[in-house]
Design brief:
heterodimer; A: alpha/beta; five-stranded mixed beta sheet; two-stranded antiparallel ribbon; 4 helices; 34% helix; B: alpha/beta; six-stranded mixed beta sheet; 22% strand
Chain lengths: 192, 157
């Protein structure tokens, strides 16, 4: 047995491996972004006399959610799957029905004079409502509005809503506003 | 002149790259450590709610978090098993929110203050009562842009 030369390990690729790891960690740590439903709360009113004219009953889409996570829409029980369609019908009022919201004429960029709905969605929950159920309702309402916007964008511009220019998006937002009012809570269910 | 030419004729000497991996590893460890350092120590248990119409929360520095959920097992003997609020690293009550928001706002750049968003991270089974109280407190603190935190849900329709 002759004395062999100690073979040197080629460490040239070590840097590559380390770079690979480095890039992996860089990517995975930024991937964890927080997501959620964005909402705007109404400003606090300091005991102001409420002199705004009351909204007509036909213009309000009342969604109630009780402590057992059951839905009551416009006075009738409803399953969550039907909420999107009901909301879309309310917002559009295609037949100009008496029971659905009024419309007003407004000049909108790109569209000309349009009949805009005066409808407002009112969402009321109980103190015992589960957060997930509440969020699902918010989600369905949001879905209804974004589907309406999407349809209009396709019809008018032939593009997805997200691909439109800022001004075009704004015009569509004026036609289908996100008017979701989160009313002050009530404690009716008796839970909590 | 001849001196210089003589040196060049010796052929290109390779730069020793043996220490390159060490440098890269150092960077790697730096990123690994610094990214986990920012996490808040969670004292409440949160299994996120799910939704489909979610938007991404951009610009982390504009976002303030409020966590709501049942205290973790080791804190339950002290804080009970009712849903509690966690601000930063400690348990809090609803009246604490106003000062918390004010402090978070003070730490921001003045130009960013109107864009401040508050993200409510609540457990999916948490009752709305707590969240409504938080919402009222946020209205009082004039932090009106909120975000109901939810994870992406796979479409079933």
């Amino acid at each position: 047995m002759g004395k062999r030369d100690v073979q040197e390990v080629n460490a040239g690729s070590m840097a590559d491996i380390a770079f690979l790891l480095l890039i992996f960690f860089l990517v995975t740590t930024t991937m964890d972004t927080d997501t959620g439903l964005a909402r705007l709360l109404p400003p606090m009113q300091e005991d102001q006399p409420d002199d705004t004219p009351p909204i007509k009953e036909r213009n309000v889409f009342s969604v109630l959610l009780n402590s057992n996570n059951q839905l009551l829409v416009e006075g009738k029980p409803m399953q969550i799957e039907q909420l999107t369609e009901a909301t879309k019908e309310f917002m559009e009022n295609p037949m100009d029905l008496e029971t659905l919201p009024e419309k007003k004429e407004v000049e909108v960029e790109f569209f000309g004079v349009q009949m805009l709905t005066k409808g407002v969605i009112s969402l009321q929950s109980d103190r015992g409502t589960e957060y997930q159920a509440y969020l699902m309702v918010q989600n369905e309402l949001q879905r209804a509005i974004s589907e309406l916007r999407q349809d209009l964008a396709k019809r008018k511009f032939g593009k997805e809503y997200d691909e439109l220019e800022k001004e075009e998006q704004k015009a569509i937002r004026t036609i289908y506003p996100q008017k979701i009012s989160e009313a002050e809570p009530k404690n009716i269910g008796g839970k909590n | 002149m001849a001196k210089f030419r003589k040196k060049k004729s010796g052929g290109q000497t390779a730069i020793n790259t043996a220490s390159l991996p060490d440098i890269v590893f150092m960077l790697l460890f730096f990123f690994m450590v610094s990214t986990t350092m920012k996490e808040v120590d969670m004292k409440v248990q949160i299994s996120p709610a799910e939704a489909t119409e979610i938007v991404k929360l951009e610009k982390k520095e504009l976002v303030t978090f409020i966590y709501v959920g049942v205290p973790a097992k080791k804190f339950q003997s002290l804080y009970g098993s009712e849903p509690r609020i966690q601000l930063n690293d400690q348990f809090a009550t609803v009246p604490d929110i106003q000062s918390y928001i004010a402090q978070a706002r003070d730490n921001m750049k003045e130009s960013d203050q109107p864009k401040m968003t508050t993200s409510i991270k609540a457990d999916r089974e948490c009752p709305m009562g707590v969240i409504t109280d938080i919402k009222q407190a946020l209205r009082k603190a004039a932090a009106l842009k909120i975000n109901y935190s939810a994870a992406e849900k796979v479409e079933v329709r």
